[in-house]
């Protein structure tokens, strides 16, 4: 039974939430657990590759939303929609941040952190792992989620007041249970498309 619960949560967590019940607030103890999920998850040699900003300030969230016009709805006219998953009760922004330790051979040989191009791959893998932990933890706690990479990095960086470039935005919150999850938060006449995937698993014994 517990396995079935886990699998059901996994399946739910892959789907993006596009509208939210903003009359509610994410519980303080849940925010702490969500923060734990991205600060204690695995990364290469436990290195620091990112900083996370947990945002509940509605004015800031809406300013960031205004910089997310990147979901293409008409490839001929290049008409785009903004991404309402960032309008959630809680918005988490991942930005670049690195520790100062020199751990790899190219770093040690040169004395510079930026000497090893592998670090960009390691950074992206670390953020992917963190986003996965955060997505699953949030869904286990009963929230819905939605990731966003379609945004204008420089304006979002300025809004955050961050030294590091923003790499990923993730909305976490209470779904609006009166609507299909794909209906736009700000435009009820628009429904976002949804896609499914089939990933092959090979079992070797």
Keywords:
205 residues, two-stranded antiparallel sheet, 4-stranded antiparallel β-sheet, NADH Oxidase, alpha+beta
In short:
With 205 residues, the chain is of the alpha+beta class. 34% of the residues lie in helices and 16% in strands.
Would you kindly provide a written description of the structure presented here, covering whatever features stand out?
There is one protein chain. This protein is an alpha+beta fold and 205 residues long. The chain has one domain: NADH Oxidase, CATH 3.40.109. 34% of the residues lie in helices and 16% in strands. It has 6 helices and 6 strands. The protein has helices at residues 2-13, 28-39, 58-65, 105-110, 118-140, 153-160; strands at 50-55, 71-74, 79-81, 90-96, 144-148, 166-173. A 4-stranded antiparallel sheet has the order 1-4-6-5, sandwiched between helices. A hairpin with a 4-residue loop joins β2 and β3. α1 (2-13) crosses α5 (118-140) and α2 runs antiparallel to α5 (118-140). It is globular and about 60 Å long. The model has no long low-confidence stretch (mean pLDDT 94).
